[in-house]
């Protein structure tokens, strides 16, 4: 079974709620996750062109990498929970040979998406409002060291440009850069989810990686 070492750094969620994503596979705080700038006030990133959209991290380094098997899942915790409407998404970036997973800076088109949550449609759009999300690591991911970027995008005030709020963490395919992967006018970011009720939703970002 292939094993990939992942390290996560806390980033932003696209949501107007206030929360953090402080741990992976742990009930502790900032475990396997780089501490985020919003760790005290649970704030968000609102500018998709800011370098903070990458990870919103306060400092480099982490408490240690997490070893996981390709094909298994990891639990991403949200504190207190992702209570605003909007999608949860996860990305990976492979650390180059010779680079330290604790200090490598993931700039440029290095990220690929492995999970994009879709809403349920009805009288309103609804997404899972949870204190944790189980994210599957694709079984065909090559062994190596990776950074994992998780985000929740809050859409309750996304009817006007710049209204979406991002809550992040970060612990061959479509590779994208942050900033750069999102535009403030992407249909999954600039959207009124209240009225008229949308009948479809397009997640911002590239196609989700599949084996």
TrEMBL record:
GO biological process assignments: cellulose catabolic process
Highest taxon in the source lineage: Eukaryota
Catalyses which reaction(s): [(1->4)-beta-D-glucosyl]n+m + reduced acceptor + O2 = 4-dehydro-beta-D-glucosyl-[(1->4)-beta-D-glucosyl]n-1 + [(1->4)-beta-D-glucosyl]m + acceptor + H2O
Annotated signal sequence range: 1-17
Molecular function, one GO term: cellulose binding
UniProt-listed Enzyme Commission number(s): 1.14.99.56
Cofactor(s) recorded in Swiss-Prot or TrEMBL: Cu(2+)
Major site of localization recorded for this protein: secreted
Keywords: Carbohydrate metabolism, Cellulose degradation, Disulfide bond, Polysaccharide degradation, Secreted, Signal
InterPro entries: AA9 (IPR049892), AA9_LPMO (IPR005103)
Location within or outside the cell: Secreted
GO cellular component: extracellular region
Residue span(s) of domain Auxiliary Activity family 9 catalytic: 18-201
PANTHER family in UniProt: ENDOGLUCANASE II, PUTATIVE (AFU_ORTHOLOGUE AFUA_1G12560)-RELATED
Comment field on protein domains: Has a modular structure: an endo-beta-1,4-glucanase catalytic module at the N-terminus, a linker rich in serines and threonines, and a C-terminal carbohydrate-binding module (CBM).
Described function: Lytic polysaccharide monooxygenase (LMPO) that depolymerizes crystalline and amorphous polysaccharides via the oxidation of scissile alpha- or beta-(1-4)-glycosidic bonds, yielding C1 and/or C4 oxidation products. Catalysis by LPMOs requires the reduction of the active-site copper from Cu(II) to Cu(I) by a reducing agent and H(2)O(2) or O(2) as a cosubstrate.
Name recorded for this polypeptide: AA9 family lytic polysaccharide monooxygenase
Organism expressing this protein natively: Pyrenophora teres f. teres (strain 0-1)
